[in-house]
Here is the input.
Amino acid sequence: MVIHLVNKFSFTTKHTLSDLISYALEGLMIAYHNYDESKSNKGFSSFASYGIRNNLLSLIDSKQNESDIISKPINKETEHPTAYVFSNWDSDDADYKFEDMFEASEPEPDDNDEKLIQLIKDHLKKPNWADVVILHLGLGRQNKLRLRTIAEKYNVTSSRIGQIFDKNIERLQNNPEFLIRLRQITRR
Here is the structure.
């Protein structure tokens, strides 16, 4: 199981195989120590694969931010940071309020959202399936749509939309790049 999961991650990351195996085995040991069959309705293999996958994802995330002394939130990283100088404030500006010095910031489409949308469209077979996942996750939008709203759009039942969503999220969870991008978005 460890080798199988390491192989999945080895194609999408630039980490050495020994690093991936080391972190996967660490995840297996954590799962072994935390597993309690009286509390779990799933088998140990499911529990362990979840622990291994989480540990591998934490390795990938930590290596991405390793160059930063203090990691920056993803939505705060910009290529051209701006600084405002208040020493230029003089008496001629008395007609303006302090708040007028700043431009209103409207939310720009997030690059991670766009990449995740493209990944979903490329990975799923039918465009409607991709659309259901994108709408329900709220990617590229202010907020996510409820299953009932999506069902009305496609003229099917909300339970059918739920089945489509669950089935396709399961498919997407096998893609490590999807998990990484989804984790980046949920950290905001």
User: Anything to note?
Assistant: Residues 2-64 form one domain. The chain has two domains: 2-64, 111-186. Helices lie at 2-10, 17-34, 44-64, 111-123, 127-137, 147-154, 158-173, 176-186.
